[in-house]
Amino acid sequence: MIATRLHPDKQTAAQAIAREIADLIEIRSKSGKSTVLGLATGSTPLELYAELIRLHREAGVSFRSVITFNLDEYEGLGPTHPQSYRFFMEENLFRHLDIPAANIHIPDGLANDPAKNCADYEAAIRDAGGIDLQILGIGRTGHIGFNEPPSAADSRTRRVHLDEVTRRDNSVFFGDLDQVPHGALTMGVATILEARRIELIAFGEAKAEIVRRAMKEAPSPSCPATWLQQHPGCTFHLDTAAAKAL
Ligand code: PGA
User: Fold this and answer.
1) 188 CB under 6 A from ligand 1?
2) Under DSSP, is residue 147 helix (H, G, I), strand (E, B) or coil?
3) Domain residue limits at 234
4) For residue 243, is it within any domain?
5) Which of 87, 155, 182, 225 ranks highest by number of CB atoms within 10 Å?
6) Phi, psi for residue 223 in degrees, rounded to 5
7) What pLDDT score was predicted for residue 84?
8) Ligand 1 touching residue 242 (CB < 6 A)
9) pLDDT of residue 18
10) Is residue 181 within 6 Å of ligand 1 at its C-beta?
């Protein structure tokens, strides 16, 4: 069962989720526990990251006890490539916070042995105690992370081919479709479903149809976001435009 929460604008959604994250960090750090966050890229989480930075600067929220795992990375792009997700995360979040560098994890788009990098990634999530809270966007193909159709419920962190719809959607960031990689490393659907809480953010009319499918269609590999229906603690944060087909 997916819960929905309607927000008037992106800032309000960002404030609500950032507050939840800050509260979780505070509660867990009081008993000496780290907080494991699953993080996303793309345009969707930008307001959330700006709000986390504001809480750090203005409200003194510390992220020293936080461990992060990003969902995915483009194959072939290294940390200095401006479109790599490592670069995106440094620019938009990490360099503004006090998360210890050793606590930050992103699949390695330049790994010589991608299968080993993916297996090590799964092990690192397990060793950290699992993901407490996962931030998600949703692609128009129904992907979560880069789990494009078809993606099974038991899929794990692995190398994938990007859907042409996704490559076209993401070409706005690259300026040119030819520059968009064809492959990526992504957490699997099962990896995502093991997070204890999932907060998915979708705004704007372009997401309305895929939000409807994710919530209303029977779970299947052809729309990987439908697997979220099987999670006990998943909320879709929407505006009225993204909720309009529900
Ligand atoms: P977007 O992408 O945030 O750029 O809309 C979301 C996604 O593909 O998961």
Assistant:
1) no
2) strand
3) 3-238
4) no
5) 225
6) -140, 85
7) 98
8) no
9) 98
10) no
Query: What's 98's domain CATH number?
Result: 3.40.50.1360
- pTM exceeds 0.70 for this model: yes
Q: Is 130 in the pocket of ligand 1 (CB under 6 A)?
A: no
Task: Report pLDDT digits (tens) over 120-142.
Answer: 999 999 999 999 999 999 999 99
Number of the ligand 1 atom closest to the C-alpha atom of 170:
4
CA 128 to ligand 1 center in whole angstroms: 26
Closest atom, ligand 1, to C-alpha of 169: 4
13 vs 10: CA distance, rounded Å: 5
Minimum-distance ligand 1 atom for the alpha carbon of 144: 9
b vs e for 205-214, b when ≥16 Cβ sit within 10 Å of the residue's Cβ? Answer: eebbebbebb
Number of domains present in the structure of the chain: 1
Instruction: Note the pLDDT of residue 154.
Output: 98
Q: Answer whether residue 1 shows pLDDT above 90.
A: no
